[in-house]
Amino acid sequence: MKKLIDLISSRFFVFVFAVLLQVIWLLLISWGMSSLSAPVTMTADILSILLVLWIVNKEINPSYKLAWTILILVLPVFGMVVYLLFGESRVAKKMTEESDAVVQEIENYFRENDKVREKIEALDEGISNQSAYIRDYAKFPLHSHTSTRYYPLGEAMFLDMLEDLKRAKHFIFLEYFIIHEGKMWNSILEILEQKVKEGVDVRLIYDDMGCVTTLPHRYYKKLQAKGIKCAAFNPVRPILNIVLNNRDHRKILVIDGHTGYTGGINLADEYINEEIRFGHWKDTGIRLYGEGVWNLTVMFLQMWSIITGVRTHIPAYSPYVFHTEEFESDGFVQPYGDSPMDNETVGENVYLNIISQAKKYVFICTPYLIIDNEMMMALCLAAKKGVDVRIITPGIPDKKMVFLLTQSYYKQLIEAGVRVYEYTPGFVHSKTFVCDDEIATVGTINLDYRSLYLHFECGVWMYQSQAVREAKEDMEATLPKCKEVSLDFCNKRNIFVRGIQSIMRLIAPLL
């Protein structure tokens, strides 16, 4: 009974209940309109057709167009209203303006080193072109003089994070989608409180939707009382509006400008297997030490300015402000961000570039495999060319219906020669690509529509770095723990399951 009362009184329940009421209200209006006079229904039909024509002629993903077209034509009033609320990846105007202002402000001193570019071009012009895309469209430069370490599990990265946090002397920046009170977060918070007392500048951003069930309402005020500068991204309000679509899905930790972490690992106990929810939790992360951390620092400060409206003198936080000696080189690294404000699907295009230019193999770890036609064709074509394409997905899903949707893509991939595996010990949350012993990217970007089109995301593109080799070794060590999916498994699904999968495939871009 207590659990039921706690659920009903929770902020999450109130939010879902309020939004559900608004959806029902819209459906009732749609039904009511259809029963009115012929001129009214004809007007609604004409407006819906005009909206569909406008959507069809937009430069957006065809799957997205199809899903919205069907909804609007079947339920004209409801479809039109919902599209106006959720159909675009727009973010709040104020947020966009603040972001543009920060980008212009940092442009003069956030430039790429010409010698680094010349060096990678001399090694491989095609790979240099992949990096140049990130520089030109995500606006994050390539770096050398950065060492890398790849973590095959969250618990290993957590231990190093604690040690690096204890060594912080000047500033600590954290930006996370999920924070949940428990061993992991409490251990970090204890260090943060001590560092504040030592005069360290500690700032934290968390996504309010990501933490809606894991943190108390206005938790940032509690942290501010402890001296931690804290802001919640896009606070959850129980009303239907387009801003709900855009979440800060990044995971970033920066210490003193020269040490940085990112990857799939949030600050909650399941990510370090202290809490077992879906079997063994397989996640990955990356530690950078050196010049490449500058990109993560700028990414954080840009988001800080967007949320708080408070500008920071960004050059004061560059890697060499608190580290005077030259950093060691370990290949090339390029941390990059993706956001709904740049009108460019950077995250997906980084993945597509890796797949399309692969010569020997591409190994992929992803929790969700909900892909558009471009990604499907790239994976299938690579396999048909003889590239060894392998994809690892969860064996125990966190969301059963989403997993059912993931499995609906298996057959076409396997028929083209892609090998698909499910991680039998539990859940895979890793977002890792590794290719040809040369290139890898580790970050927060899932293979689903939300990550690729609507969320603020980040990753680290690497070439000839130690972490590339370590990611390959991790993939090879993980595959024996997986069950390879056969074509026979796909063909033997019953007609009911296939029917559900077909419907979900149709509306996948809207989920």
TrEMBL record:
PROSITE patterns associated with the record: PLD
SUPFAM superfamilies reported in the protein's UniProt record: Phospholipase D/nuclease
The protein's Enzyme Commission number: 2.7.8.-
Localization of this protein: Cell membrane
Ranges in coiled-coil conformation: 92-126
Keyword Membrane appears in the UniProt entry: yes
Membrane topology, as annotated: Multi-pass membrane protein
UniProt domain PLD phosphodiesterase: residue ranges: 244-271, 424-451
Chief localisation class: membrane
PANTHER family: CARDIOLIPIN SYNTHASE, PHOSPHOLIPASE D
Protein name according to UniProt: Cardiolipin synthase
Organism: Blautia stercoris
Gene behind this protein: cls
